[in-house]
Amino acid sequence: MENKRKGSLLSFRPDIKVLDATLRDGGLCNDFKFSDAFARALYEMNVAAGVDYMEMGYKASKALFDPEKFGKFKFCDEDALQKIVGDNPSPMKLSVMADVGRTDLKRDIGGKKDSVVDMVRVACYITEIPAAVEMLEYCAGQGYETAVNVMAVSKARDEEIDAALEMLGQSPADCIYLVDSYGSLYPEQVARLTLRYLEAGEKYHKSIGIHAHNNQQLAFGNTIEAASWGASMLDATVNGMGRGAGNCPMELLLGFLKNPKYHLPPVLRFLTDQMLPLRAQGVVWGYDVPYLLTGRLNMHPSAAIACVRQGNTDYEGFYRALQEKD
């Protein structure tokens, strides 16, 4: 395919869709223990802001995860979702995420006709593609839109990525996501990967998405870089709330996009009314030096999360310890 950017920073791109992942990725910061009032206010914010998809959380197996230890958005039972959104009379679509190996498909995901959910996103590592394809086929057969998030591609070899894209291209996935799980990618790398994904997308008629993490404060930059080359499904979370360093902030993304259907004021109001109190309650997320260091070394952020929770500010010592592990 021709290596050409799709428009400029001032262009309007009608193909772009925004997905809010605050309840799902943000739920990793507080064990998904969001109140119904918070979730409903977030739903209303997204509708008012013109967001295209809202991810309600995970479809995790209750045999693997204790419902006593997690909030309802870890499981997204149908009655719990309808308590928040009713029948979702809005044009915004709802999604849930299903992890390979952590979702009991037949038990946890019923038919679309009985659900307020529109799309199931399957998350997998590159070694789990065959299992992901099975899940995509099942969910598509149940009547859902489907997407697939291949995690930690910054650790994968080129030939693995090519093989994965070929398999996913032949799957029922409507969208294939480029995921910077460790927040280690730079815009130039994101551009190169996006073009590779788009090549498969054009061949198999799939849209391409981007899900970025903010370890090196590049989540927003990498998201708009991917979009500039043709990625059209863009993930964001309010105030960047997500695991560890968090994600591309919704307020930055909507402020940047030139589509008049998107509205920033509802997001700003939600920030004041809901996100500031959440931080005041002690829920922690966002850029910090330990995340920079795991991002630089292309490592899972678990060590950085532990470092931040312990209040360890010996950053040089932490960096040396990471380098010994690497």
Order of helices and strands: EHHEHEHEHEHEHEHEHHHHH
Distance between the amino and carboxyl termini: 36 Å
Q: Identify the strand order in the major beta sheet.
A: 1-2-3-4-5-6-7-8
Q: Helix proportion of residues, in percent? A: 40-55%
> What value does the Rg take, in angstroms?
19 Å
Q: So what's the overall shape? A: globular
What is the typical, i.e. mean, pLDDT? 96
Report the uncertain regions: none
The name of the CATH superfamily of the largest domain reads Aldolase class I
Instruction: State the secondary-structure class.
Output: alpha/beta
How does the major sheet shape up?
8 strands, parallel, barrel
Would you tell me which CATH topology of the largest domain applies? TIM Barrel
The CATH class label of the largest domain is: Alpha Beta
How many structural domains? 2
CATH architecture descriptor of the largest domain: Alpha-Beta Barrel
Number of strands: 8
What do you see in this structure?
Helix 6 (158-169) links the parallel strand 5 and strand 6. The protein folds into 2 domains: 17-280, TIM Barrel, CATH 3.20.20; 289-325, no CATH class. It is globular. It is of the alpha/beta class and 326 residues long. Helix 6 (158-169) runs parallel beside helix 7 (187-204) and helix 7 packs across helix 8. The mean pLDDT is 96. It contains 13 helices and 8 strands. Helix content is 41%, strand content 14%. Strands 1-2-3-4-5-6-7-8 form an 8-stranded parallel barrel, surrounded by 4 helices. The protein starts with 16 loop residues before the first strand and ends with a helix. It has helices spanning 22-25, 36-49, 78-85, 105-108, 129-141, 158-169, 187-204, 219-229, 250-256, 265-280, 289-296, 302-309, 315-325, and strands at 17-20, 53-58, 93-99, 119-125, 145-151, 175-180, 207-212, 233-236.
